[in-house]
Amino acid sequence: MNIHEYQAKELLAKFGIGIPTGYAAMSVEEAVAGANKLPGPLYVVKSQIHAGGRGKGKFVELGPDAKGGVRLAKSIADVEADAKDMLGNTLVTIQTGAAGKQVNRLYVTDGVDIAKEFYLSMLVDRASSKIAMIVSTEGGMDIETVAHDTPELITTITIDPATGFMPHHGRAVAFALKLSGDLAKQAQKLSSQLYTAFTTLDCDMLEINPLVETKDGNLLVLDTKMSFDSNALYRHPDVEAMRDETEEDPMEVEASKYDLAYIKLDGDIGCMVNGAGLAMATMDIIKLNGSFPANFLDVGGGATKEKVTAAFKIILSDPAVKGILVNIFGGIMRCDTIAEGIVAAAREVDLDVPLVVRLEGTNVQKGKDILANSGLPIVSANDLGDAARKIVAEVKQAA
């Protein structure tokens, strides 16, 4: 789960981490009220969307010459004008894709006199089974560009969860950032605080870009992103309450209500599979046969009839779907349960696209009998290759 910048900063502040004063705003009036609480004379007005590159982004409705989604304002009047520009309009960045995201929230913060910018992030390194802290002196720009052009400017420090954060990790961070004296001590303390926040909140990723040295000699978190392990959210109801469903695909939101692993893709063949590996293989073989999957959908090993019905309806709610491939290997999951769900969903909605089903495993014959006796135009397949060929051919024929 992702959260907005202002929410992430609220969480970091609870761990004693320094952030500029700022106020979230859902309206122009709230943005102006927030600015009036700040000392000025410099303010920063930031669009709040779940995507990076906001400063370089463009608002679709305002034309190519409009300013981006992060703006410096030199007066309250400027704050008001920027808020009117941003709220309700669509911001397109390098991470949103061409469709962009509508800006519904702003964050108005105090201006900061910056002496130097750094990069610092933490994530779970699955290769080493450790937590990786990634630091660079090249803050304020895309870390991917730095990694591509000047990888020697990036330092990775791994931390074993069994021992936790140690003083030498903090010294390594300060050294990588080329800091000395009091700034080095601040970097050591900050990195320890970030590790505590990361592990306490069950984060997947915590990125600060930039971390800045102010002209009066302090380290401040100027911008941050946080994402969390969704499987651990039950331990953090305060974090879960920060979820902004308007930033998520509606079908993915609906799938999460049924504990379905669903990700929308750009193709036209909907997939319903049990098991992540089998789902990936199914998408691969669809592409091998000349088409593209419209989604990744794993119904899991213990799905009920109701869960399968919900999964099928979610696939059909995507207007891009021109055909559906169901590929089930019944281990824990029973093929007759899948078949009952498919029949129930197909009868509940107006099924007007080709449907190919491949079943194998527990109660497979019962499942096939249910499909065969349903009276629905369901095409049966013998194996995965046969299923992929048939659904691709059905979709092309229907077109």
Tell me what the structure shows:
With 399 residues, the chain is α+β, with helices and mostly antiparallel strands. It folds into three domains: 90 residues, ATP-grasp fold, A domain (Dna Ligase, domain 1, 2-Layer Sandwich), CATH 3.30.1490; 127 residues, D-amino Acid Aminotransferase, Chain A, domain 1 (2-Layer Sandwich); 149 residues, 3-Layer(aba) Sandwich (Rossmann fold). Helix content is 35%, strand content 25%. Strands 8, 9, 10, 11, 12 and 13 form a six-stranded antiparallel sheet that branches. Strands 1-7-2-4 form a four-stranded antiparallel sheet, covered by helices on one side. A four-stranded parallel sheet has the order 15-17-18-19, sandwiched between helices.
List keywords for this structure.
alpha+beta, Dna Ligase, domain 1, Rossmann fold, 3 domains, six-stranded antiparallel sheet, 13 helices, elongated
C-alpha termini separation: 37 Å
Q: Could you tell me the mean pLDDT?
A: 91
Structural class: alpha+beta
Task: State the shape.
Answer: elongated
CATH class of the largest domain: Alpha Beta
CATH architecture of the largest domain: 3-Layer(aba) Sandwich
| Share in helix | 25-40%
Question: CATH H level of the largest domain: which superfamily?
Answer: Succinyl-CoA synthetase domains
Report the sheet with the most strands, covering strand number, pairing sense and barrel closure: 6 strands, antiparallel
